[in-house]
Amino acid sequence: MSRRGWLGTAGVGVVAAGAGVVAGRASRSGGSASESAGAFAFRGEHQAGIVTPAQDRLHFAAFDVHTETRAELIELLRTWTAMAERMTGGQETTENGAVGDGQYKPPSDTGEALDLGPSGLTLTIGFGPSLFTTAEGVDRFAIAARKPAALADLPKFSGDALEAARSGGDLAIQACADDPQVAVHAIRNLARVGFGKVSVRWSQLGFGRTSSTSTSQTTPRNLLGFKDGTRNIKAEDETEVDRSVWVDGHDDQAWMAGGSYLVARKIRMLIEPWDRATLHEQERVIGRAKGSGAPLGGSEEFDEPDFAAAGASGPLIDRDAHVRLASAEELNGIQILRRGYNFTEGSDGFGHLDAGLFFIAYCRDPQRQFVPMQRNLARNDALNEYIKHVGSAVFAVPPGLGPEDYWGSSLFAP
Amino acid sequence: MSRRGWLGTAGVGVVAAGAGVVAGRASRSGGSASESAGAFAFRGEHQAGIVTPAQDRLHFAAFDVHTETRAELIELLRTWTAMAERMTGGQETTENGAVGDGQYKPPSDTGEALDLGPSGLTLTIGFGPSLFTTAEGVDRFAIAARKPAALADLPKFSGDALEAARSGGDLAIQACADDPQVAVHAIRNLARVGFGKVSVRWSQLGFGRTSSTSTSQTTPRNLLGFKDGTRNIKAEDETEVDRSVWVDGHDDQAWMAGGSYLVARKIRMLIEPWDRATLHEQERVIGRAKGSGAPLGGSEEFDEPDFAAAGASGPLIDRDAHVRLASAEELNGIQILRRGYNFTEGSDGFGHLDAGLFFIAYCRDPQRQFVPMQRNLARNDALNEYIKHVGSAVFAVPPGLGPEDYWGSSLFAP
Q1: A199 φ/ψ angles, rounded to the nearest 5 degrees
Q2: Taking each helix axis from N to C terminus, what angle separates A180-193 and A70-88, rounded to the nearest 10 degrees?
Q3: What is chain B's Cα-based Rg?
């Protein structure tokens, strides 16, 4: 199937496009319903933490890589992989890591997650454009030739107010768990072990997932008070997941087969003007009823929006309503898998709360999915009056791991 | 009982000192074990959120008060009280607040906690020294004569690195809940309604409570990886709670009878040097085993520390060990009720995680409990090499509410 062909076919003829591509991998990661205290498989065809039913808490960290040698970077990725497998399996016990290495060494684990179990922890790695080629064009790790076209830096969108310190990164790790201490513990220990080779460029804590990624979950609310993610791709729709989330390896770098792309956008909500808007205005902007989550004109949350229905003046669902502009109907079939989290970070210095949405999306090609979607939203979305994009990053998320693989082994394979 | 008498008597002769002082109040707030999805009584002898079994999540906000009129401040406190009672009761439904006020008004509730239930939410208010008298000595609200002596600003302690933007405040609200979205929702809505009269001076999110306040709870771990709060006062020890937490009204302002004092300290942990310390050093600094939490020389977490036991050179529990310096044995019987939370706030700009402990303590007189304790710790604690106090505040926490009371009604009573 050509790169051009897969968009716009809306699920027709692409059934199981990703299946069987990556031989020898046992199962789709995270396809089963979440057990909140349970563990998700670390190895599999795809990395866990993408279609895995969204856990309640997030700790996301973007890193700058300081080491200049390919061997040292690979060595760190191998070490991280072993740690990640141990932590996602909940194998922090008093018998190892935290206190098991003897009195006269620094403990190999910091210990604050002792006894908390796996808590549904997933750790997902991604590689940023700058890992392949620095801003000066340097190919530090002899991987520039493997840089995917889809991994280009995102263009500037209308209204962007990005902060450099909140954007980019050579690589990123997404930790999701049902217990924030478990997510924080994981990122902290990976950062700790990377000391001298990598440093935290920016990081983000999130709570109250704003998108459900499984039909087994109810739709959570974002900090605008609206249900968010009703029409999100669900893990159970494998046809759509294969069409819109997983790279199939024919229209991308071979090492990315079974992988995906992660787009992160830190979206500050201007909650004070929002909170002073009437319910009518809020529902017009979103295009849904605030209480039930039903599309305007519908009665149940999962009713399909009727974009053609007429209202008193113009369409019932406004031309600039968020639900319309972000819809597959509007975007020639484009869909993305959203996995965002709410955040709150104290005061903004003007007596208001600094809060919003840390938007995470997974897609097969950000240039052909996220970029046209965000262009449409950035130009026209009625919601723009109430939000501001302050951070942005894109990462190539390699496929899942076979029994002998480490994070990035397909990228660094000879 | 004289003000001088109650310290040093260590539980003798002060049984039920606080009981019966505040007539007509139904019950001790939060004395029962927590039901994680349940509601705690909003009204009672004492405010909930103090001895209430510590919930998992915190959103704490300190406010500057901008209104200059006593009537307007009282009106806001009345409004807040009604909102707080509604929110702690989980009474946000689609029938009121979020969508029940009609289409052409801003909703009276922002809606993101719809359907989440009470989630154990408690809201606890406190009044700062500057509410009584401004830095210029102005008695804005005709309450200067009622300022408790115990509410003096805290002295500067050795090693303090306080940031003004993270310290002080005219009043504070502590929101604790088992769901962070519920805690954030509460603070957000209180701040929203206070717009123009108050503004958020600073706020703090916390997770993974670091102190258990009930014998029904297991002891959580702080971000040093150690169990924190083993020797904390527990709600079930009513004798000690009455001795060390509740103001009895004879040795303080009458309006504070049944109240307490809240001391907040934002303590940044220097986790990188800590993580590079040997297990032996970490355990020497704390005075406990990292795995079990047992005091050095003991075998179980709740064994009493033997401060007299001899080690290979000097005492087995170091002279500067945290557990010794903070102990009632060392401090002539002083105890406080700790109710702290872990925090993590992204990168510190040097590639390290900005993380630590948001310390909250409740005590009957901060000048006679927290201040001498912190003086001792600030001078000698071996832990000082690994921590830095960056924020500080103290608040007078009024008593619980009778059926007709509002937050602060005893303070503003004629």
Answers
A1: -140, 155
A2: 150
A3: 21
CB B311, CB B304: distance < 8 Å: no
Residue of A nearest to B101 (CA): A279
- A163 burial (CB, 10 Å; 0-12 / 13-18 / 19+) is exposed
DSSP B260-322: EEEEEEEEEE-HHHHHHS-HHHHHHHHTB-TTT-PBTT-SSTTSPP-TT-B-SSSBSS-TT-H
Contacts with B, A 302-361, CB within 8 Å: 342, 344-347, 349-353, 355
Residues of B in contact with A278 (CB under 8 A): 103-106
Partners of residue B351 in chain A, C-beta under 8 Å: 64, 198-201
**A69: how many CB neighbours lie within 10 A of its CB?**
11
Give contacts of A57 with chain B, Cβ < 8 Å.
207
Residue B63's closest CA among B146, B162, B170, B185? B170
Of the candidates B45, B381, B99, B358, the residue with the CA atom closest to the CA atom of residue B207: B358
Amino acid at A296: L
**414 residues of chain A, pLDDT tens digit each:** 333 334 433 333 322 323 222 222 223 333 333 333 489 999 999 999 999 999 999 999 999 999 999 999 999 999 999 999 999 998 876 566 788 778 888 888 999 998 888 999 999 999 999 999 998 999 999 999 999 999 999 999 999 999 999 999 999 999 999 999 999 999 999 999 998 999 999 999 999 888 899 999 999 999 999 999 899 999 999 999 999 999 997 889 999 999 999 999 999 999 889 999 999 999 999 999 999 999 999 999 999 999 999 998 899 999 999 999 999 999 999 999 999 999 998 777 666 778 999 999 999 999 999 999 999 999 999 999 999 999 999 999 999 999 999 999 999 999
This prediction has a pTM of 0.89
For A352, which of B59, B64, B200 is closest by C-beta distance? B200
Please tell me what DSSP assigns to residue B25.
-
Contact (Cβ atoms closer than 8 angstroms) between residue A339 and residue A204: no
Cβ atoms of residues A59 and A186 within 8 Å:
yes
A-chain CB neighbours of B288 within 8 Å are none
Enclosing H/E stretch for A202: strand A198-209
